[in-house]
Automatic annotation (TrEMBL):
Domain of life: Bacteria
The name this protein goes by in its record: 7, 8-dihydropterin-6-yl-methyl-4-(Beta-D-ribofuranosyl)aminobenzene 5'-phosphate synthase
GO molecular function, one term: transferase activity
UniProt domain Metallo-beta-lactamase: residue ranges: 94-146
Amino acid sequence: MCEGGDAAEVFASAPRNAEGAAVDPIALQPVDEVRITTLVDNVFDALLTGDDRVTRADVGNGRVTAAQFEGGSTDAGLRAEHGFAALVTVRRGASTTTLLFDTGLSPDGMVVNADRLGVDLSEVQGVVLSHGHFDHAGGLAGLVGRGRRRMPMVLHPAAWTRRRLAPPRGEVFDLPTLSKRALEGEGFAVVERREPSLLVDGCVLITGEVDRTTEFERGMPPPHQAWTGSGWEHDPLVQDDQALVVHVRDRGLVVLTGCGHAGAVNIVRHARRLTGVDRLCALLGGLHLSGPAFEPVIPPTVAALTELAPDMVVPAHCTGWRAQHALAAALPGAWLPGSSGSTYRIAA
């Protein structure tokens, strides 16, 4: 669905069946700990409480000027917006590495929340984009504004695809499109990969294109369209959608999604098949189960995830309230509400 391209590229981006073990399995090195801090989510709830799995931000984050209060200031809490960004810190022995997975919607939302949480974005050693939709890449401008430029950025080559929403009745909305030229001009070392990538000395897996193997996860409805170079066509697959995977020693896989356009179950199956690790420890991130086109997918998704019996499920961003309720009811011991400023810790 990219502008230009040849037959080989079209073939490479086509969905395919995946049966049996991976032909080229990934030797994902186990880690001792992973911490995932949600810098941007659709929700900020200052009244959520933490436990041994999650630390919550409270309303006291972010003192701002406000003349109508005595003393001239108030506490602003954190921002919530229709987007997603997460800080991922992995520890193996004495070695610790921090990556940024997506950057939220607005140019300043992620950096404002990072400041209010006391997160130093100068420690980020690389950026991973789950896909090219603007609500996951908007915060790159704020990151650049902080002088964070000279770092690798891993994404799928279809992330540059021009896309739009063209409902049968309603105005066409052209989605803002990432500019490779602009990002490289800012100093990002852009790494385009369709295939899986191993980062952080083999401790972090970026899935690349996800095998579509379920019968019920069929992707985006017809209004979601992509420019082919000669016209607009239905883009159901969002082929650039990819996830981040970590293997926590003795616990299993931790899977982090942006929107989960490939389907939550497809993504988990793909991660298990690539790594040869059957145990799903945690699933976090957007699962894109909101709205009439996706609500029929909720029951089979919940059933499949219930069978996997993860220790932690944190649906975020575009999951939708119906799916949240269904997952909370089916997995009461594993489900945790998402919120900007929450840090989830999974340790060996």
